[in-house]
Amino acid sequence: MRRMYLFVVACFLAGFGGALGSILGHAAGKTGLWIGGAVGGLLGALASAAVARGRGWIARDQFGATAVGATIGFLLAAAVAVNTLSSPVGPVLSTSLVGIGALLGARARRSAGRTAT
Fold it and tell me: Rounded distance, CA 34 to CA 46, Å?
């Protein structure tokens, strides 16, 4: 259940952060819209790892790897979304890459922790 929560929260917070950042950045023009979306989404990806740590869905030592995974997932999702703007399916489904990245990051750190002990 914890993995499902991490996935959903990572997708939601990165998507929400990207949308909110775009809205706020739009005041600065087209460039601000893109920069705001990227910054907002990246902050949302980081926030998802913080929420997961705070709720106990990941161990404290998994925070960094989970944050990196979610961040990489967001960057991949942004690349997919920008290249599929003609269809609503690409941008919506690409958000799942954030959740997948967060899960892979948390899993990688957990696996690394097991081999080190």
Answer: 19
Neighbours of 24 (CB within 10 A): 15
The rounded distance, in Å, linking the Cα atoms of 71 and 86 is 24
CB atoms within 10 A of CB 63: 19
Diameter of the chain by CA atoms?
Answer: 52
Quote the CA–CA distance of 32 and 25 in Å, as a whole number. Answer: 4
Q: Determine which helix (DSSP H) or strand (DSSP E) holds 111, and give its type and residue range.
A: helix 96-116
Q: Where are the beta strands (DSSP E) in 1-105?
A: none
C-alpha 59/C-alpha 14 separation (Å) is 21
* DSSP letter (8 states) at residue 61: G
Residue extents of the structural domains in the chain: 2-112
Find out whether 73 and 45 touch, Cβ atoms under 8 Å. Answer: yes
What does the pLDDT look like over 57-88, one tens digit per residue? 999 999 999 999 999 999 999 999 889 988 88
pTM strictly above 0.90: no
Q: How far is it, in rounded angstroms, from Cα 58 to Cα 9? A: 13
